[in-house]
Every structure is written in C-alpha cells, then in structure tokens.
C-alpha cells in the first residue's frame, strides 16, 4: 500500500452559514503530483489553507506524513514548502538576494541558494533584479524559495495562473522534475483540466466544496471526461 503524505477525513469548514468545504477526504500518495482541480470558488484555496494550518478545521482530521496536523504542527510544517497567491518576492533585490535572505531566515547553508537557482533554471538571471523577471521566472523563484528548506511536500496554489504558455511549460517541467528526480510530493491546485492532465499522476476534483472524483490520472481517463470549464 502506498504511503499517504496527505490524508484528510471528513474535512469541513463553514464561513458563517455557508459550507465552503464539505466532508473532504483527500488521499495524496507519496511521490505523486496530485492535481487538485476545480472551478474558481470551489474551495481549493480554503483547503490549502487548512492543510497549512492557516485556517482551523470545523470538523474532520488532517494527517500529513502520517501524523496528526494539530498535535504535530511545527514538525509537519517544517517539512512543507508552499506557494499561495503571489510569492513574497522583493522586486528591488536580485533573484539570488531574495533566496539569500530566506536562507538566512531559515538557517539553511548558503550553498543551497545556488543549488535552487540551478534547479529552477534561474542561474543566468541570478543577478538580475527580481522586479524585472517575467511572471514565469517569478513563479519559479517562488518555488525555489519554497524549496530552500528541502521540504518533502510542496503545496502550490494555482502556480501557473496568469502565465503565458512558455511560463506554464517551465513550471510544469519543474514540478515533474521535482517528483521524478528529487522524490518530492507535489500538491498543486488548478482550474484547468488540460493543464493538470499534462503533469498530474493523481487527481482530486472539487466543486462547491465537495470532492466529485479522486484517483489516478488513468482512472480519470477511463471515465468519460468531466466537464470542467
């Protein structure tokens, strides 16, 4: 049986009297790229905030690395790299300086910075001001920042949002490389089915806070394509 890196049971959250996440049971296998798919407003970002302990659950449980998130918060979160909304990048600093700052904060050896720049293919732009980066480069720098502490799990909210086709390919190839070569597990949300199909090994489809489908990409292809606009 595959080890589950993320496992939630009956996860529910209400904002006022509106149920935003309804009894969600996610199963994210180790070494997968799990595409968390659904239209905007389906509850994807809320779920991600629950997984990162930025929001409290009303009901249900979250296990990450087979430990309860509530009682092992610090230990678990230290092994997760995340990118939600816009990466926290300082435009007046170079790409390398952005990473050096974070490395100091995380007490990570300086050598990791060059490794990360190489990994996300930003070596040539290391000394260019991050404010001058293309959106795709900014996303890759954001992912490099999330990877500095060498997390086992990467949680990315819509990392290809607003990118041109080239930027989308760059991010996709990076995520595939992280899983195949670096043995990470990647949980990535998107509202684009075609995008998820090109990189995910596993998929969870959410709509109005409910999980409509969960399984391997092969299982998804076996059933008739769900209509996700």
* Total helical elements: 8
- Helix content, binned percent: 25-40%
Major β-sheet strand ordering: 7-8-9-4-10-11
Helix- and strand-based class?
alpha/beta
Question: Oligomeric state of the chains?
Answer: single chain
Round the Cα radius of gyration to an integer and report it: 17 Å
Mean pLDDT: 92
Choose one word for the global shape.
globular
Main pleated-sheet profile: 6 strands, mixed
The strand count comes to 11
Description:
With 229 residues, this protein is of the alpha/beta class. Helix content is 33%, strand content 28%. It is built from eight helices and eleven strands. The strands form two sheets. A six-stranded mixed β-sheet has the order 7-8-9-4-10-11, with helices on both faces. Helix 3 (95-106) packs across helix 4 (111-119), helix 4 (111-119) packs across helix 5 and helix 5 runs parallel beside helix 6. The two termini are 34 Å apart. The model has no long low-confidence stretch (mean pLDDT 92).
């Amino acid at each position: 049986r595959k080890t589950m890196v993320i496992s939630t049971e009956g996860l529910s959250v209400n904002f006022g009297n509106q149920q935003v996440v309804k009894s969600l049971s996610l199963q994210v296998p180790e070494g997968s790229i799990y595409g968390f798919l659904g239209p905007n407003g389906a509850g994807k970002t809320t779920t991600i905030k629950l997984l990162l302990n930025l929001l409290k659950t009303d009901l249900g449980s979250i296990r990450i690395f087979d430990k309860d998130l509530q009682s092992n918060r610090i230990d678990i979160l230290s092994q997760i790299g995340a990118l939600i909304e816009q990466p926290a990048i300082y435009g007046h600093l170079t790409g390398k300086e952005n990473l050096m700052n974070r490395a100091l904060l995380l007490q990570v050896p300086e050598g990791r910075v060059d490794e990360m720049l190489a990994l996300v293919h930003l070596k040539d732009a290391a000394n260019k001001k991050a404010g001058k980066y293309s959106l795709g480069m900014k996303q890759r720098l954001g992912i490099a920042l999330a990877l500095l502490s060498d997390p086992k799990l990467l949680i990315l909210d819509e990392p290809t949002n607003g990118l041109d086709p080239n930027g989308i390919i760059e991010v996709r190839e990076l995520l595939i490389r992280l899983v195949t070569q670096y043995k990470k597990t990647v949980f990535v949300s998107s509202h684009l089915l075609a995008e998820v199909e090109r990189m995910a090994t596993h998929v969870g489809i959410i709509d109005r806070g409910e999980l409509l489908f969960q399984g391997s990409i092969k299982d998804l292809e076996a059933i008739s394509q769900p209509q996700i606009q």
